[in-house]
Amino acid sequence: GDSKTPFVFLGVSTILNIILDVMFVAFVHKDVSSVAYATLISQGVSAITMMIYCVKTKKEYMPNLKHCYFDPAVLSKFLNYSLLTCLQQSVMNFGIMMVSGLVNSFGVSVMAGFNTAVKIDTIAYMPSQDFGNAFSTFVAQNTGANKTERVKKGLKMSLMISTLFNIVM
């Protein structure tokens, strides 16, 4: 129920990432690897500080040995809910990687045009994909709570909202 705390951590991580991007590109490497290092550092700082926060303030949520066990039924449910989504996203990214490799062979200007088109496509596609990911979480939580009616109602709303969004895009 606490959405404010993760939002603060995400905001701090984003601001740190922007600052490190500028510092690393301007003063250190001046290439793409600088931006990658800045992202890695900011995400690492966010993860570590969030872990410290949880250890200090949310002790009741910390795992202990009694939580460590293997349940084949839980694994089966997990795979049932996640396998198709993982496969779909993997196929999409593998396809983009294959096309990018082909486009790269045509030279810098074709590659730059293609990357611009991919960015535009991402702007249109990403919200829809994120909506699907959020709906997956919604279904998982409500299925776990045995609220199947809520899942059915959510499915209808999800289809309506995503269809309207896609028509607009």
Structure report:
The chain is mainly α. Helix content is 84%, strand content 0%. Helix 3 packs antiparallel against helix 4 (108-144). The two termini are 32 Å apart.
Largest sheet: none
Instruction: State the share of residues found in helices, binned by percent.
Output: over 70%
Strand runs, count: 0
User: Count of helical segments?
Assistant: 5
What is the ordering of alpha helices and beta strands? HHHHH
Question: How far is it from the N-terminal to the C-terminal residue, by CA?
Answer: 32 Å
Class from secondary-structure proportions: mainly alpha
Average pLDDT works out at 87
Which residue ranges are poorly predicted, with pLDDT under 50 across at least 5 consecutive positions? none
Give the C-alpha Rg.
21 Å
* Anisotropy-based shape: globular
List the helices and strands and how they pair.
Layout: H1 4-28, H2 32-57, H3 72-104, H4 108-144, H5 148-168
Helix pairs in contact: 1-2, 3-4, 4-5
Short structural description:
It contains 5 helices and no strands. The protein is an all-alpha fold. The protein is globular, with a radius of gyration of 21 Å.
